[in-house]
């Protein structure tokens, strides 16, 4: 594939929505894989104790594997907890083990507990706010943080670590329910902890173009969030949902499928959005 220009600095994207099952993990791994296929250096941080992103990217995540838990709680350097994704040369993963379930509680008594992930990421020279001229070949272009389905301390760490959010929204009846709570959390984080945070991308997932309901929900999301919504919606597709059971993303499992092609389009759009949100965006 033709090389795509690298972003000026590392873009740290938080994939969050406190609702479960909306496509956070699926979108994280497929967007990450698509960007890696486009020649970008990508890191996925699995911040969900379930470890679904680790499974989908085929990296070890049994208890005892160096993981996000060590990064957050033990202060282990990033270099010691990341693993290469076997399928995609430019993609690395910090896996999540079940230990991470305890981190939510264990971090409560730690100083600057909501800054742990940010500090851990930026302590590594490959995660850089510097422009590309100053960065080495091995600098990460994108870091995706796959959040658990809650707004606890783990998600808070992600919101403090990243400058951008990608919110997957499932095209179904209750799609917008709970988004108010997410947006007020983002406002709170922006006011007190991370003024740079913006909602850069909203991705409509599991879209079924044959139903009026899905079309209606997509329209509602677009009228509410405008330019923040990526033009490419991800269709509901069995190929997308079965890829993880083969330890693959749909990008390698079935690259010609509609699901893979829409993730590729969405990844290109995300890349084109650049570093800073446009003027006049919501939130
Ligand atoms: P979350 O991380 O938000 O909990 P997941 O990404 O795990 O959500 O997705 C929830 C379920 O929906 C999973 O079983 C996944 O395989 C399935 N899924 C996600 N996206 C699609 C899609 N485009 N088509 C079909 N199934 C999907
Ligand atoms: Mg998930």
UniProtKB/TrEMBL annotation:
Gene3D superfamilies per UniProt: P-loop containing nucleotide triphosphate hydrolases
InterPro entries in alphabetical order: AAA_dom, DNA_Partitioning_ATPase, P-loop_NTPase
Residue intervals of the AAA domain: 11-199
UniProt feature coiled coil, ranges: none
Top-rank taxon: Bacteria
Transmembrane regions: none
Any one Pfam family match given in the protein's UniProt record, by short name: AAA_31
Task of the protein: May play a role in septum formation.
Similarity comment: family membership: Belongs to the ParA family.
Protein name, entry field: ParA family protein
UniProt source species: Nocardioides anomalus
